Amino acid sequence: MSFFSESTKQKLSEWNGKPTVHSFYKDRKSLLVESGIYQILNDSEIPGSYLKFQNILQELVLLEEGINIALSVMVEINVAGGILLHSKEPKGKELLDKITSSEYIVATGVSEPKWEGQLKNIKSYLSDSHHLTGTKSFITNGMSADSILWVLPEKGDFSVYSVDITKHVHTIQSEEVKTPFASLANHLKISLENYPLTKDDLVFSDYKSIGLELRLKELFGLVSLLLGFVLKYFSSVLPPEVQTEWTRLLIWRDETAKELVLADYYTKLADLFPFPISDLLESLAKHYELESVSLLPKIHPDFALFIWEDSVTRFLSKRKKNNQ
User: Which of 27, 125, 265, 312 has the fewest CB within 10 Å, making it most exposed?
Assistant: First the structure.
């Protein structure tokens, strides 16, 4: 049973021919809100709601340019929404209401030049007068965002502030970051210099306590995107060897997600990492007679989304191995 009506799917699939991708997600946000997909943020302690969200992500990928829609939704809900769910601050509650009920988009800025996945390398800072200076190098949905959750060191910890990028534009320098995969999902590099904040802009004061949880949720969401992408790529008729691994991964995803709630996202996902996508990717490489999974992007650039290798995933894998 489809989560989306046929008319909604048609509208989500329409491309308006604009020369930029900045509005791709923005143009569809109101339809997505109406469909109820953001309800996961209000139902995060209800068993079954996270599985429903994963099925929705998988279905979104099947639409025209659906990988771009699904990636944009997944990041806003899992990362920005994930931070806001943990926030006890008035600003956090305000932004959570906005992203679940309107076209308002919140993106998240963590990565910085030379940060290599290490929070200790973040150089953004607040002056004594509460002015923010710093650079974020890769913010998914950043080009269409109304505000950015900006992670920075503060008082020996890592705080998250809301930066309304529609204000004080004279303090902002920005440029689009393009990727060869999911090319309609936008990414931003942005620098702020003496951007004025107030204490009321504080969203969360302990990002370090949830950073790995957010990354695990991103990676888990990418499992659902992969399931949808493979199904779409073969027009639902999968080669036998691919079908076997696809079904196995689907069952694992469903069993894992059905009981997940906010209270245990981190512990359960961390125990299960690395997520078992390798067999499906290997079956695809074998089907295309490729020597390595790393060559799959030559078949289609969007396969690059599913080849995980960064400092965070290496850290998680090493920690899991050491604990066994």
Answer: 125
Instruction: Please check whether residue 120 is in contact with residue 112, taking contact to mean a CB–CB distance below 8 angstroms.
Output: no
Q: Which two tokens stand for residue 299?
A: 């078949």
Distance CA 287, CA 294 (A): 14
Q: Backbone phi, then psi, for 172, in 5-degree steps?
A: -115, 135
Q: pTM of the prediction?
A: 0.94
The amino acid present at 129, given as its one-letter code, is S
288, amino acid identity: Y
Q: What DSSP string runs through 287-321?
A: HTT-S-GGGGGGT-GGGGGG---SHHHHHHHHHHH
Q: What is the pLDDT of residues 194-242, one digit of tens each?
A: 999 999 999 999 999 999 999 999 999 999 999 999 999 999 899 999 9
Dist CA 135 CA 123 (whole Å): 8
Strand partners, 131: 196
CA distance 286 to 292: 8
Other C-beta atoms closer than 10 Å to the C-beta of 196 total 14
**The dihedral sign for the CA sequence 42, 188, 137, 127:** negative
Task: Report which DSSP code applies to 202.
Answer: E
52 membership: H or E segment, kind and range: helix 49-61
Instruction: Output the DSSP codes for 83-141.
Output: HHHH--SHHHHHHHHHHHHSS--EEEE---TT-TT-GGG---EE-TT-EEEEEEEEEET
Tell whether omega for the bond before 240 is within 30 degrees of 0, i.e. cis. Answer: no
CB atoms within 10 A of CB 226: 25
